Amino acid sequence: MGTVSSSMSGPSPRRWRRDERTLWRVGPGSVVVVLGPHDATPRSLRDTGAALWAALDRPRSVHEVAARLAAEFDADPDVVRRDVEPVVAQLVETGALRAFP
Amino acid sequence: MSTPTEDLCRAVTGYGLRGASRPLPRRPLDQPIWDAVVEHAGQQRVTGHLAQALADDAFAATDSQRAMAAECHERALALDLLLERLLLASVEQLERTSIPVRVLKGAALAHTVYPVPGLRSFGDVDLLVPGEHYDAAIHVLCALGARRRYPEPRLGFDRRFGKGVCVETPDGYEIDVHRTFVAGPFGLAVNTDELFATGATFHVADRVLDCLDLEGRFIHACFRASLGGTEPRLVSLRDVAQIALHTVVDADAVRDRCARWRCGIVVQYATRLAWETFGLSADPELVRWARRYEPSPFERRALRAYLGPKRSYARQAVAGLQAVRGMRAKGAYARALLVPDAAYVRDRDGSYLRRLGRSVRLLVDGRAKH
Prior knowledge:
The structure holds two protein chains of two kinds. Chain A is an alpha+beta fold. Chain A has helices at 2-9, 48-55, 62-73, 77-93; strands spanning 15-18, 23-27, 31-35, 43-46, 60-61, 97-100.
């Protein structure tokens, strides 16, 4: 989690994208089930989580993802960023996302 | 006679197929019927179609019913991913030892014939390995900690005549390692070399995996739908209809292969079942051909070993003798089944005496039919 947070405060925030080794499925009705390389069991991302996963098909910083989701769901970008950070941190921890410089 | 639950699940499984005519409920179902539908859809591995019909508002449901279906489908998707992880690990090990392998059924179909893989769930890993590499493949998988369910009747039987073996991983997942599509006469009539002469590929995560070509996938789907059990799983019937209606499967190539493998009756039976089950009106060339097909006496006899209340592995094994090519091979096949190794008899029958009794009953029964 620290990796994601500290990357936020620097001048060039770290960018993330899906790791190619990650297994995942999109289900009908805005759900994505993800199994990262270090995951013991798959996890479900629903609604905004599924949108977050969709946004990380290319390298993006947490700021960029939050801005995108805020626009999509008509929400406050700061609030969205606070919600997104821990999810991204968990996905990084399980290897589902990897960093781009 | 089918129950309302079964009828609803047929309609759900056919959802999205071109020309499917079974109606879906326009008003939410009573809870007990809904519960039964979700349970049945899970057993039949068609929760993806249920979730899709709900997401499209084609199937009326309450919010709590939608949540229940979503949860059930998420469990199915989670299992799919765990099985794909196992699939990748198994294929990697086999390829490392230069064993050719084709992915069959669930994962291969999910990634190649459905618009999104999440529509096609599965319950195990299915691999096809050439006979000459068969023993080595089982050895490789067992070295990873998997354990084969049953011993083979006699040393070398699996690689020459067997359908395949189920090995179980320490955490309870199953890998079906196939040599051919099915036990018995139809499996023995398939030219397994041909299954490796052509092929296709698909992606899972960052890996490229091999599967059968489209015509091979279609014929195998027909085997599953026709011969897989007394009551075929809805997912198997959907596979047949999905490929026939929504892919560019080559009807001529299927017909030629059916002639060589003596399995036209299997395609005929599977397409008929699928078309009846989903109330399909579309009439592609492949299905028109299957409807008109005239099965040979071999095919008619062979099909009887797989259908009806008395279907059993033993019945299929006895019927398989006709399909084994060459007198020496027939002798080896019969010897392995009549006098198998002690470990096999212990597992399957308990004792040689009990096995002998069962064999006599099968023979008497078989003669009475002719």
